[in-house]
Amino acid sequence: MSASQQVVCSSHILKLKDITKRCSISRSKIYRDMKDGRFPKQVHLGSNCVGWLSYDIDNWIGSLVQSIK
């Protein structure tokens, strides 16, 4: 198993509702920043279902913290 596969296996899927609560940002800001490359891309889970890997969100939050320091 490669390193990237291990990361995905240890990560879990967050829904949009979870992200807006966790990051205190709006749905529209998430999609706008995703389009501009400033927010992690979503993972398609089905025809009408998407989510985000918790690993990607954790890294995004970490990069925001580092940019403040």
Task: Briefly summarize what is shown.
The protein has 69 residues and is of the alpha+beta class.
List keywords for this structure.
69 residues, alpha+beta, 3-stranded antiparallel sheet
* N-to-C series of helices and strands: HEHHEEH
**Binned strand content:** 15-25%
Q: Please compute the radius of gyration using only Cα atoms.
A: 13 Å
- Spans of at least 5 consecutive residues whose pLDDT stays below 50 are none
The SS-based structural class is alpha+beta
Mean pLDDT comes to 88
Q: Report, as a whole number of angstroms, the end-to-end distance.
A: 35 Å
**Sheet with the most strands, sense and barrel status:** 3 strands, antiparallel
Give the helix level as a range of percent.
55-70%
Can you give a write-up of this model?
- By secondary structure, this protein is α+β, with helices and mostly antiparallel strands.
- It contains four helices and three strands; from the N terminus they run αβααββα.
- It has helices at 3-10, 16-23, 27-35, 54-68; strands at residues 13-14, 43-46, 49-53.
- It has a three-stranded antiparallel sheet.
- Strand 2 (43-46) and strand 3 form a beta hairpin.
- The longest helix is centred in the C-terminal third of the chain and has 15 residues, at 54-68.
- The mean pLDDT is 88.
